[in-house]
Amino acid sequence: MKQLMRIVFLVSLMTIAHGEVVIFRKCNENVKCTVHEVRINPCPEAAHNKACVMLKGTNATIAFDYTPDFSAQQVTAKVFWTQTAVDLPFAGMDTEGCKYTSCPIVEAHRQTYSYNLPIQQKYPKRTFDVKWQLMNEDQEMCCFIIQIAIKSKKDRN
Question: How many domains does the chain have?
Fold first, then answer.
């Protein structure tokens, strides 16, 4: 039984870590980092280069591989609903980045960040550009923008 539980756990981890590779774009800020790949689970829409549909009351895992051009003992993660004129903070986000990537951050060392994002019922239903930042003490950062569509479970299709 323990062996079976280990196998189920490992398969779950592999699924979470892999997810669907999604299209992302670089932020306009002065970024000191290379983001190699962004994955979202679940996101079957990625196969058609469409915004990932995230259902209210569920969780989505966001993971990305990055190589920073900076080092850091601690990093802060920030997520925003981004628009041309303003960035609005994403409510409920845990900003302690070292919980979701290995710290200290080592310059030129490829790493992975993985976060389980709860999609709260209070989020409005629509398509958003979401800016994700991982920033050190000196405001040096990794940053990318993805597109998501928040829907209620009854509006899935």
Answer: 1
